[in-house]
């Protein structure tokens, strides 16, 4: 192959120059320009999406932290409520016990008083009966020997004796 | 088997014959059409979610963007994306064209199918085109004063070397491409010619042909990349202040 046999091939040079230039201009104007545009658009979109994702992530983390804190607060509150309730129930039970004790005391006292009173009444009635009975006996025994005054004195002495018992 | 392109000299201009290398013209046109077709089919739909060919074209564009960004600021270099893309793609397709087969006429052994980049005029034309563009954009983007001052930097006595450099750049850029592809084609012709001489040689030369084709693909891709890369390197020397 003789490379330079015909001298400089001006025709080839001009033709390839023209062909390349035309191809470059057409491709640049009608294919690469819009293609670069869409590539840039896509890049921007991806960037935006990434930014948004980052933002959402931060927000979600914030929410999570908030929720966690709220949960902690709720737990503390629940604990407090529980403690309060147990304290209250303890107090109540103590109160009920106290009341029951007081009630029992009261009932006992009332019963004791009742007994006292009954005893008093019984004594009274016994005393009266003894008095009348002894008067009747004495009357029967010493009807004739004693006057009114002496009789009274005798009864009193008997009564004293009974009382001493 | 000597190979000779088909020449056509329709007229003379100022006493100089205007010769057309028809083989180069046809093959280069076909390379251009292939690039055009791929690019347009790939860029036709413009989907936000690219599929198939658009993916490929976008990858090539991205590759070119990488080449440009390696050399200069994208704000300055963005305008050269079409140049880098077309250079890379056309030279790659041209280099690949001669690999699967070559065609020549039976009687005169006139080649009608080959890698158009194995034509020195085409390779040097592309190189000169690139270098001229670097000068044009150097003046356009930085002003003629800055452009001229660059010939005396960093020291004034470097001026003659700077001038030589411009021609050397053009020559090496074109001759590198031409030399690689031409050598690839010559050796391919020799291997295939030997293989075609007899049945036994055909069996023996089958493997070397495959190896050389694989190497040809490697060289072709590499040279296309180097050409586009160096074009952008020269461009960055002219359009960026140092």
TrEMBL record, chain A:
Keyword annotations from UniProtKB, A to Z: ATP synthesis, Cell membrane, CF(0), Coiled coil, Hydrogen ion transport, Ion transport, Membrane, Transmembrane, Transmembrane helix, Transport
Transmembrane segments: 12-32
Key word DNA-binding present: no
Membrane topology annotation: Single-pass membrane protein
Coiled coil location: 50-121
Keyword DNA repair: no
CDD domains associated with the record: ATP-synt_Fo_b (cd06503)
Compartment(s): Cell membrane; Endomembrane system
Main location: membrane
NCBIfam families in the record: ATP_synt_b
Record's subunit section: F-type ATPases have 2 components, F(1) - the catalytic core - and F(0) - the membrane proton channel. F(1) has five subunits: alpha(3), beta(3), gamma(1), delta(1), epsilon(1). F(0) has three main subunits: a(1), b(2) and c(10-14). The alpha and beta chains form an alternating ring which encloses part of the gamma chain. F(1) is attached to F(0) by a central stalk formed by the gamma and epsilon chains, while a peripheral stalk is formed by the delta and b chains.
PANTHER family reported in the protein's UniProt record: ATP SYNTHASE SUBUNIT B, ATP SYNTHASE SUBUNIT B', CHLOROPLASTIC
Function noted in UniProt: Component of the F(0) channel, it forms part of the peripheral stalk, linking F(1) to F(0). F(1)F(0) ATP synthase produces ATP from ADP in the presence of a proton or sodium gradient. F-type ATPases consist of two structural domains, F(1) containing the extramembraneous catalytic core and F(0) containing the membrane proton channel, linked together by a central stalk and a peripheral stalk. During catalysis, ATP synthesis in the catalytic domain of F(1) is coupled via a rotary mechanism of the central stalk subunits to proton translocation.
Sequence similarity: Belongs to the ATPase B chain family.
Name by which UniProt lists this protein: ATP synthase subunit b
Organism in which the protein naturally occurs: Geomicrobium sediminis
Gene: atpF
